[in-house]
Amino acid sequence: MIAKLKGLLDETGTDWAVLDVHGVGYLVHCSAKTLAAMGEVGEARTIYTDLQVSENDMRLLGFAEASERDWFRLLTQVQGVGSKVALAILSALSTAEVQTACANGDAAMVARANGVGPKLAGRIVNELKDKAGALPVEMSGDSVTSVNTRVSKASADALSALENLGFKPLVASRAVAAAQDELGDGASESDLIRVALKKAAG
């Protein structure tokens, strides 16, 4: 089991990154929030990983913090939730928001993620309701500089809006994070979208 990688960020894509560890490039699939926290190519990074092996595939998933990896593992325990859906949820919602949604039975919040319908969202919150309080949600430490560790509902909605307009998840996430930094934590959804659109287009 590969639990953690330390190396230089070599390349990034819409939902993946390559980490160069002593000359070996590891392809890791990541959520938009983890990708946004990666920084620039060439910088040293540590990412926490989960290795998934099936009959036809072997896939390494990467996370900014161990807590995000723990939530990924918990989400994929739910029937119908594979790695792609789990990453979509962690791209649309912070771990704090996932925990809140599960604790409160708020299926609508989970359904904001791409590819998650109302039925699946309901199953997720029902099955994880009793487990929601057992996992940490904070993204802190020196492994990755987080662009926005506590994503508000407004910024999550703004991220979803930009993705619906056709922006790639990484571009949308970075634009919303930059808008959040510029406007502050109390910014409204409409203001975040307006500023993020300018930054994404620029």
TrEMBL record:
Stretches for region Domain III: 154-202
Keywords of this entry: Cytoplasm, DNA damage, DNA recombination, DNA repair, DNA-binding
Major subcellular site: cytoplasm
Top-rank taxon, per record: Bacteria
GO MF term set: ATP binding; four-way junction DNA binding; four-way junction helicase activity
Location of the protein in the cell: Cytoplasm
All copies of domain Helix-hairpin-helix DNA-binding motif class, residue ranges: 73-92, 108-127
CDD domains with a match to the protein in the record: UBA_RuvA_C
Tagged with keyword Cytoplasm: yes
SUPFAM superfamilies in the record: DNA helicase RuvA subunit, C-terminal domain, Nucleic acid-binding proteins, RuvA domain 2-like
GO cellular component: cytoplasm; Holliday junction helicase complex; Holliday junction resolvase complex
Region span, Domain I: 1-64
Record family assignment: Belongs to the RuvA family.
Domain notes: Has three domains with a flexible linker between the domains II and III and assumes an 'L' shape. Domain III is highly mobile and contacts RuvB.
Subunit structure: Homotetramer. Forms an RuvA(8)-RuvB(12)-Holliday junction (HJ) complex. HJ DNA is sandwiched between 2 RuvA tetramers; dsDNA enters through RuvA and exits via RuvB. An RuvB hexamer assembles on each DNA strand where it exits the tetramer. Each RuvB hexamer is contacted by two RuvA subunits (via domain III) on 2 adjacent RuvB subunits; this complex drives branch migration. In the full resolvosome a probable DNA-RuvA(4)-RuvB(12)-RuvC(2) complex forms which resolves the HJ.
Function per UniProt: The RuvA-RuvB-RuvC complex processes Holliday junction (HJ) DNA during genetic recombination and DNA repair, while the RuvA-RuvB complex plays an important role in the rescue of blocked DNA replication forks via replication fork reversal (RFR). RuvA specifically binds to HJ cruciform DNA, conferring on it an open structure. The RuvB hexamer acts as an ATP-dependent pump, pulling dsDNA into and through the RuvAB complex. HJ branch migration allows RuvC to scan DNA until it finds its consensus sequence, where it cleaves and resolves the cruciform DNA.
Matching HAMAP family: DNA_HJ_migration_RuvA
Full protein name: Holliday junction branch migration complex subunit RuvA
Source organism of this protein record: Pontixanthobacter aestiaquae
Lineage: Bacteria, Pseudomonadati, Pseudomonadota, Alphaproteobacteria, Sphingomonadales
